């Protein structure tokens, strides 16, 4: 058998991947740690022909029509990357022992030792009256998969041809389902490279109680209670371990309702570790934001779903608008539970088969098909209750035949679920992954704004004390608080919602000019002290630290929005004496009611820092007088003309205080010194409080975004940057930073059995090393040749009865019903 594909071949640090671009729908991903040998084949018509032997003894031949330099660079990069992946090969055999496909091709009758709850408690559908039919149908599907994997590889070396997509759409065999979900979603690769992480999390956090674990305990008994495993301690314990492990892996997300429904469903077909990594893929990549406190991802997809309904079923959409029916009332649970809570389980898992293979677009296609099929009935409903009841009735009848009395045998066997799948993939094939991603980008700002408005109202409403601030002022404080939190998140060491000192610098600089410190001033620090562009120490900046400590009433090292509102309220709405007392207390380090000589000097530096942007010289004279009066020191010059003279006064005062011994000032004396100077009196009476401007600029108002979404995006971005930053740094150390040329080339792949090859080696005519960009792709022509390999005798024992012939015919009928064209689409 020989098939040919044209497409792009991509080489990264750990994978060799191909995707056809000729519309025939072929793809393969070969982890470099599964390659046993790569040899260069002599060929006069091509500059490069590579023979690749993988772990399962399948040989692939790649032919390239490209310039010699491109071919040599590709070879050298492949050789280098293969060497770096050798360390993973020792983990390959234990990993493959957890894959059912390894057992299936050797002895299909052998039982799995590792797997899901279904191995012990049975799979959905097994307990029904048609149990024999379900079992025989499962055996027939398994036989088809054995044939496919003999010719196209298995698990980590599987080639996905157009026939692969057909087999997935007619439903996966029960014992093979978990492995295929892992493979299609990419979770298998994560599980391999993170071997042991799941067990490590349980050991590291054993016995730890968090808000997430408490919420998990509440939901355990509400997770698929109809399935027998979750009526026993074994099933509940497995679910608890998976959910708690994920909450420890991602403490920012932790746990959210609906995660328990999805996790309990996939545990039927997968081990705990497999389910853990599938859950990670769902939350981090496939459905970001679905399982968060605001569910912003699910809300975003609901807007997209309504957009599709409006464009593709405008009459039905207009009816919903006319009678004020909210689509999200019924449809949001579909998306959150991946239809598990809506359909009979055995059918919901058929949807999951397609979902893990093709991505989130399947959720939209199925939802649109449901509305289209029930369009006539839905046009008669007039409220949300009738809308939900109509759909519930439809879901309960999905396994019923559409036309039981039809004379055509094929039509008699066609169920409502078969009809749903056909309508979803044929009539809504225009709903693609690309279109979903584009609409997510289009609608995300609208969703963010709506969530931000709701979150903002909720948080402001729950403030215990607004300190006489107006609603508008509180709104501005909220915006500036969370804007500073977002921009300071990447440098923050805190994992909670409290603001740390570094972020407080940015926040305070946004509401008062005297606290503004440029980023280069903060970064150009020595021993934690900000420096200006000339490297000089910025005098008095610690007034910001003192205000932070004052706002932090709980002494937790972080301040809440309530702390900020309370602290600012005391400054804005206090009287002159209270503000003088505030300054006194800020600098009274030991809180003994007296300012020592060093504390008085620090206070003078604080005043100089606050006054540093003023154009007049009055503040210089006042601070100088304050120092003199505070130390009972007189100077004939009563009006210093420059800041230098004030600094000299401070230095002289320090020297003189050391000579005179300990001096201290009580609050009454301090107040008297302040009130004796008109400039300082006016500052504490009006100027200081008026420096805090609670006005939001227009540009800041326009870019307001939901804090949770910002936190998630920043967290994900920082994780990604750190991961790839480490990769790039390591590559730069070992390779020169040259970019590989992009050239059109041709390659062909042939697959055959070769049981003699067992070593790993690279043969190349040149040793020149290069650096290849990770997303580099080469236009390629790929063909795959497969020859029949010797079958194990036991494989024929899977089914030889006459009844299987009829079931195979039924499977063939389903394959024809789910027919796909040459492009791999329905």
Automatic annotation (TrEMBL):
Residues 539-574, 575-610 form the EF-hand domain. One of its GO terms (molecular function) is small GTPase binding. Coiled coil: none annotated. SMART domains: EFh, TBC. This is Rab-GTPase-TBC domain-containing protein. InterPro entries: EF-hand-dom_pair, EF_hand_dom, Rab-GAP-TBC_dom, Rab-GAP_TBC_sf, Rab_GAP_TBC_domain. Residues 171-359 form the Rab-GAP TBC domain. PROSITE patterns: EF_HAND_2, TBC_RABGAP. Residues 726-769, 783-807 are annotated as: Disordered. It comes from Gigaspora rosea. Residues 746-769 have a biased composition (Low complexity).
């Amino acid at each position: 058998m020989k098939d040919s594909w044209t497409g792009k071949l991509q080489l990264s640090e750990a994978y060799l991947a191909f995707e056809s671009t000729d519309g025939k729908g072929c793809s393969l991903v070969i982890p470099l740690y599964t390659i046993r040998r790569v040899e260069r084949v002599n060929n006069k018509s091509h500059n490069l022909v590579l023979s690749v032997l993988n772990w399962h003894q399948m040989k692939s031949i790649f032919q390239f029509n490209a310039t010699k330099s491109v071919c040599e660079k590709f070879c050298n990069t492949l050789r280098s990357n293969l060497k770096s992946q050798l360390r993973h090969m020792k983990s390959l055999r234990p990993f493959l022992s957890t894959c059912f496909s390894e057992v299936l091709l050797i002895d299909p009758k052998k039982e799995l030792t590792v797997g899901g709850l279904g191995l012990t408690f049975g799979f959905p559908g097994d307990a029904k009256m048609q149990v024999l039919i379900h079992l025989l149908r499962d055996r027939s599907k398994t036989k088809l998969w054995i044939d496919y994997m003999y010719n196209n590889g298995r698990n980590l070396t599987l080639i996905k041809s157009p026939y692969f997509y057909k087999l997935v759409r007619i439903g996966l065999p029960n014992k093979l389902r978990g492995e295929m979900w892992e493979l299609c979603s990419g979770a298998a690769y994560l599980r391999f490279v993170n071997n042991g992480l799941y067990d490590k999390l349980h050991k590291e956090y054993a016995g730890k109680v968090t808000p997430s674990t408490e919420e998990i305990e509440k939901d355990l008994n509400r997770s698929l209670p109809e399935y027998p495993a979750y009526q026993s301690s074994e099933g509940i314990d497995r679910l608890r371990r998976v959910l708690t492990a994920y909450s420890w892996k991602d403490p920012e997300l932790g746990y959210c309702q609906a995660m328990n429904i999805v996790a309990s469903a996939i545990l039927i077909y997968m081990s705990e570790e497999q389910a853990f990594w599938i859950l990670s893929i769902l939350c981090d990549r496939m459905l970001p934001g679905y399982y968060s406190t605001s569910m912003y991802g699910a809300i975003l997809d609901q807007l997209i779903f309504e957009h599709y309904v409006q464009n593709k079923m405008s009459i039905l959409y207009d009816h919903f608008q006319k009678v004020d029916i909210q689509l999200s009332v019924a449809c949001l649970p579909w998306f959150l539970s991946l239809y598990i809570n809506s359909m009979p389980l055995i059918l919901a898992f058929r949807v999951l088969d397609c979902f893990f293979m093709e991505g989130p677009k399947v959720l939209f296609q199925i939802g649109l098909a449901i509305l289209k099929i029930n369009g006539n009935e839905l046009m008669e409903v007039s409220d949300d209750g009738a809308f939900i009841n109509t759909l519930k009735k439809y879901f309960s009848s999905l396994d019923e035949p559409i036309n039981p009395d039809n004379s055509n045998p094929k039509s008699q066997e066609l169920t409502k679920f078969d009809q749903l799948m056909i309508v979803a993939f044929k009539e809504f094939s225009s709903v693609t992954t690309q279109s979903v991603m584009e609409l997510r980008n289009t609608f995300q700002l609208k969703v963010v704004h709506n969530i931000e408005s709701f979150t903002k109202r909720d948080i402001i409403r729950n403030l215990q004390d607004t300190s006489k601030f107006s609603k508008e002022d509180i709104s501005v404080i909220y915006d500036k608080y969370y804007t500073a939190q977002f921009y300071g998140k990447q440098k923050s060491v805190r994992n909670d919602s409290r603001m740390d000192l570094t972020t407080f610098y940015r926040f305070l600089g946004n509401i008062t000019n005297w606290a503004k410190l440029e980023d280069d001033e903060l970064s150009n620090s020595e021993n934690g002290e900000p420096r200006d562009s000339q490297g000089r120490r910025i005098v008095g900046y610690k007034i910001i630290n003192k205000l932070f400590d004052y706002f932090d009433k709980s002494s937790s090292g972080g301040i809440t929005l309530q702390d900020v509102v309370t602290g600012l309220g005391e400054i804005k709405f206090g009287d002159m004496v209270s503000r003088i007392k505030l300054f006194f207390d800020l600098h009274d380090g030991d809180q003994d009611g007296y300012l020592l000589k060093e504390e008085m000097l620090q206070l003078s530096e604080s005043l100089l820092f606050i006054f540093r942007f003023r154009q007049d010289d009055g503040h210089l004279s006042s601070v100088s007088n304050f120092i003199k009066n505070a130390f009972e020191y007189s100077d004939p010059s009563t009006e210093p003309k420059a800041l230098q003279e004030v600094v000299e006064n401070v230095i002289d005062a320090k020297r003189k205080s050391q000579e005179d011994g300990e001096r201290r000032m009580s609050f009454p004396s301090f107040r008297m010194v302040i009130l004796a100077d008109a400039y300082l009196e006016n500052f504490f009476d009006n100027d200081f409080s008026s420096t805090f401007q609670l006005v939001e600029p227009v540009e800041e108002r326009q870019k307001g975004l939901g804090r949770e979404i910002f936190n998630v995006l920043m967290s994900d971005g920082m994780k990604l940057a750190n991961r790839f930053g480490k990769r790039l740094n390591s590559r730069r150390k070992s390779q020169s930073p040259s970019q590989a040329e992009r050239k059109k080339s041709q390659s062909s792949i042939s697959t055959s059995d070769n049981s003699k090859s067992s070593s790993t080696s690279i043969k190349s005519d040149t040793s020149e090393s290069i650096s290849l960009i990770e997303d580099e792709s080469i236009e390629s022509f790929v063909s795959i040749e497969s020859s029949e390999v010797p079958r194990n005798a036991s494989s024929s024992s899977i089914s030889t009865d006459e009844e299987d012939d009829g079931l195979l015919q039924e499977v063939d009928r389903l394959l024809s019903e789910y027919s796909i064209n040459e492009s791999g689409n329905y």
